[in-house]
Amino acid sequence: MLHCSIFLCGAALMIIELTGSRILAPFLGTSLIVWTSLIGIILASLSLGAWWGGALADRYPHHRRLGQIVLAAAWATAGIGLSKTWVLEFLQGTGNLHTLAIVATIALFAPAAVLLGMVPPFAVRLCLDDPAHGGRTAGMLYAISTIGSIFGTFLAGFVLIAWVGSTSILFITAATLVVASWLAEPANRLLKGASLAAFGLAIIFCNHHDSLMAQRGFLDRDTPYNRVLVYTSKEEGTSRPTREMVTGPQGRQSAMYLDDPTELALPYTRFYRLAEYFQPEMRRMLVLGGGGFSFPKYGLAHYPDLQIDVVELDPGMTALARSHFGLTDHPRLRIIEADARTFLNQVEGRYDVILCDVFTSHYSIPFHLVTVEAVERMRAALNPGGVVLVNLLASPEGGSSRFYKAVYATFKTAFPAVRSYAVFDPTDLYQWQNLILAASADLPTAAARAADIASMLTHILPAPKGNIPPFTDEFAPVDRYLADFGLRTNH
Questions:
Q1: pLDDT, tens digit, 9 for 90 and up, residues 46-78
Q2: How many CA atoms lie within 13 A of 246 on its CB side?
Q3: Which of 264-268, 300-304, 397-401, 425-429 has the lowest mean pLDDT?
């Protein structure tokens, strides 16, 4: 029975760690900094727990004490689910990303990790009847714990996160740890039974709460690759009703007018209409990153001869676009479920326009799509005279401009003509905002016929100053460039 308890504790640890990335994502993103903090703090907590557990086991080598430790770990796990939102809301915006990620991980995940780290050495002490076989006993128990962690990793990554909400996962894990506590020592049955009942009720409450929120237009969904929030709101200034999608800490990643699902609701998506200026005869468009499918829907409605291919890695995101953002099947729309870089490496056709909108939040940049090698693949996928339009968040100058300057330099390695446009204010070079980068073999300079596009062209920015080297697959310090300043708000 003790061996089963150790297995379950090992599984619980990895489920907590992987679920932790989803819990932190809406507030801190999913960057390398966040993952490093999560892994590092949990490893440190396990080390502390191993030392503490070994010392405690020598003083109180009783199954009852081990059962108490595992039960405490169950309540610490449930505590994550109960406190995560207010802890992260309290911490958000109080420091730089490195500090926030470390402090948030310590506050939420360290207690459970310390307690679970105490289990293996405590179990070794309880099973150590013959010192002559101490190494074998320790090796076997740690192997069981590790196998449990492997099982928990695949269970969380392949099943739980894709099908169950993060909060419910935590309460399910807490209930599992109650069972592990009982397996370690059947004593305190009343307390353990009450704990199991409490966590079961919490799971039922979470599911009921999610159902009520969904009826009110708010969804909190874990997809295979993202934690996605969907809610209804009103556009500032016009009060038009909108439905919005959030996948990171910088506000809206996609939005739709409820009274006109094909109209472009977010300002940066309207700048993608520059494609009709740069390529007025466009016939084929590649969109990297589907999200709420804002521009593909607009393109199908307004460009009758345009064939659009959309590459979206996350099938859960596409499902939400279908159910909540008006996406429907169309003979001129092809949706490819793949990583954008993998698709670019294998694509055989050519396009007139490529829209790159894969940056789900400012702190979740897929570095492999902003390197020289990736840009070369984009150039190879374009017809002669084709154009790439990229949306990114930065300021043209100042402390938050290094990422933008590096991306600009990267595209200059493959495209002779590169321009950038400020979506909101081209006069304030230090304002953090959406920037649209256009790259081609040759960009036109003639006046635009449409007044709104002519207005967009007046938002052109001067070429960036400085000598920031381009990103490469070998060296792309994206996270370091993005961590130069605190969290901002997306538009």
A1: 999 999 999 999 999 999 999 999 999 999 999
A2: 23
A3: 397-401
Q: How far, in Å, CA of 403 to CA of 407, rounded?
A: 6
Q: How far apart are CA 107 and CA 83, in angstroms?
A: 10
DSSP of 359-372: --STT---GGGSSH
> What single letter denotes the amino acid at residue 491?
H
Q: Two tokens at 430?
A: 């230090």
Task: List the domain boundaries for the chain.
Answer: 2-215, 242-482
Q: Which of 68-72, 209-213, 454-458, 459-463 has the lowest mean pLDDT?
A: 209-213
CATH class of 242-482: alpha beta
Say yes or no: do domains 2-215 and 242-482 share a fold. Answer: no
Within 216-262, where are the H helices? none
Q: Give the CATH class of 2-215.
A: mainly alpha
Pairing between β-strand 382-394 and β-strand 351-356 as defined by DSSP bridges: parallel
Using DSSP, state whether 358 is helix, strand or coil. Answer: coil
Integer Cα distance of 54 and 56 in angstroms: 5
Look at residue 130 in the predicted model and tell me its pLDDT.
66
Lowest mean pLDDT of 147-156, 324-333, 459-468, name the range: 459-468
How far, CA to CA in Å, does 180 sit from each of 1, 10, 53, 166, 294?
Answer: 9, 10, 17, 21, 48
- pLDDT at position 488: 44
C-alpha separations of 304 from 109, 354, 414 in Å: 52, 18, 31
For residue 152, the SS3 value is helix
- Beta strand 260-264 pairing with 254-257: antiparallel
Helix or strand or coil: residue 222?
Answer: strand
The pLDDT tens digits of the residues spanning 165-218 come to: 889 999 999 999 999 999 999 888 899 999 999 999 999 998 887 788 777 778
Instruction: Give this prediction's pTM.
Output: 0.83
Query: Exposed, middle or buried by CB within 10 Å (0-12, 13-18, 19+), for 217?
Result: middle
Strand, coil or helix: what is 487? coil
Distant-in-sequence, close-in-space partners of 159: CB < 8 Å, separation ≥ 6: none
Residue with tokens 């039960």: 71
Measured at the alpha carbon of residue 215, what is the angle toward residues 210 and 216, in degrees to the nearest 5?
95
DSSP 8-state code for residue 158? I
Q: What is the separation, in whole angstroms, between the first and last Cα of the chain?
A: 55
Among 195, 166, 201, which Cα is nearest to 179's? Answer: 195
Q: 166-184 and 2-28 helices cross at what angle (nearest 10)?
A: 160
